[in-house]
Amino acid sequence: MQVIGSVALVGSSNFTVPGLTQNIELNIQIRAPGDVSQLQAWFEQHWNEGEEVTPQIIQVIERQIRDYTPFEIYAKALRELFTRHELTANEWEQRESKLFPVLDQYQRDGYKSLLSIAGQHGGALLCDGVGLGKTFVGLMLIDRLVNFERKRVVLLVPKSGRESVWERNIRRYLPDILNGFLSFKIYNHTDLMRGVSADEVSYPAIFEQLRQQADVVIIDEAHHFRNRGLASTEEGVRSRYWQLYHLCGGKQLYLLTATPVNNHLTDFQHLIELFSRTDRPDFFASRLGIHNLAAHFQLLEKQLAAIVRGQGLGELFDSNQVEAEQVLFNDKLFRELVVQRSRAFVKQSQRQQGVSEALFPKKEDPRVAQYSVKKTYGHLLGKVEMAFAKDKPLFALAPYYPIAYFKGDPESIAGFERGRQVGLVRLIRVQFLKRFESSITAFEQSCQNLLLKLLAFVKVNSQTEHELNRFDKW
After folding, report:
1. Is there a single domain that holds both residue 335 and residue 436?
2. Number of domains present in the structure of the chain
3. Domain that holds residue 55
4. Can you spell out the DSSP letters for 352-382?
5. Which pTM does this prediction carry?
6. Taking the CB of the first residue and of the last residue of the chain, which one, N or C, has fewer CB atoms within 10 A?
């Protein structure tokens, strides 16, 4: 079969929209009979080698134009939605968190408030009273930060509560985070001051690594760090506060304590400065209008001092104690950084939620306990009177007052030396009386220690054989 007129067309044109309307195509017309015959033979060869694909093409076309049921469209839409969907924090709390379902509503509210405060200011304080479940709020923070946000978290706790409180509850509710590859570490407060242990564990190196790598620091019983101490000594040793301060630079902080203020309002200031930093006194200027943190607390101290001066001692601790507390509780910085709920608030919250109320101990009125010192320690009081008598006291303290046993002329002893020994003995006696006033147990311990010193003194100064035998016999 021959092409009519022995003409052939060779080119790149194709029957697509770009090929027909947009692309630049090249087509050549061939008229030479020999070239046309050769091209026709090539075409026939490849045409004969071809395979029938019409059914497959029809199948593809039908798949593209077929009708879909509403359910298929709905299922496809859901698949596309959740394929690209990332779990939100609320969804994670409801579906995957092991702690969130355990918490009471007021604890959930506190946990979310802490996250919000720390997100704004870099740190937050949970100051609920004793027995309101601060530990579980802290555990919820750890669960969220480690398991959902994938942050590196350091927990610092008192040594006494590490095993009995924290590790026990972590093993119960979050067993996976104590071991394995999750980025969570727990240390004692006292570890901050440790050097290299007997098993060659370098705590300074550990905390330096944590300083470089950690994202969040959670501190239980944070009031242990209310006093700054020395930033450095001659030996280059910093106080525990400054060790923690060095660790917390650039970290998000969560401080758990029932007593943010103990002796002075500056206790609270020192806790805040763990995340606001001492070199940034204007840290809260833009958000709260506090341009100097130290000056702000000095003003609060003056306000509190004015209340104290304006009332008698009895009045201060009676009707106006609440008024003194308002100096801090009404402070905008305290309200901004602190989550604090009372037992009354917790009970009201539980009533509103319709759950069983927490049981708290009830305070009873003071009761007078009948007590007689004479009946309890009468026999001891008589001995104490003899021991501290003015003339020839039984409590002579011979090692500290050897002049009393001088066999020569008393006038030959210098007055300064006599006065020094008499003053020393009086000082020791006064200290023993103070120990006796403190407690019988403290007084007993002091007597035991003094007895051992006296025995050592007698043994060292027993020179003759008679003296040694007498000492051994005693």
Report:
1. no
2. 3
3. 4-64
4. HHT-PPPP-PPPPPP-PPP--HHHHHHHHHH
5. 0.62
6. N
